[in-house]
Request: fold
Amino acid sequence: MAFPIFAPAIPPSPGTEIAPEVRVLAADFGDGYRQRAADGLNSVRDTFAFAWEALPAADADAIVAFLKARLGAEAFLYTPPGESAPRKFTCTKWARKRVRFSYHQITATFVEVFDL
Reply:
C-alpha cells in the first residue's frame, strides 16, 4: 500500500515538541520485586506537536485539506525537520487561527504509527 506524503510548502516553525509514549509490561512479585519488559516491537511511539506560525491562506488551506482528506484514520508519510527519513503518522487533532489579514496559524498533533 502506498501512503500519501505530507509535504507542506513551508516547514513547521521551530520549537516542535516531541513527546515519546513508552509502553511497558510489568509484573509485581513479593518483597518489592518488579519485572518489566517492553510491550511489543515498537514500544516507543513519538507524538509531535507541530505549529506553522504565519502561513499565507493558500498554504494553510493546503495543509488543512491534506489532514481532512485523511479523516484522522489514514496514515501518511512525513519527514520531520532535522530528520533524514520519513516516518508514518496519523493526525486526529489540528486547529487553524487567523493571526493577521490573510495569514494563518496551524497547530497539529502527529502521532507515529507502525501498522502496514
Observations:
- The two ends are 8 Å apart (CA to CA).
- The chain is about 10% helix and 50% strand.
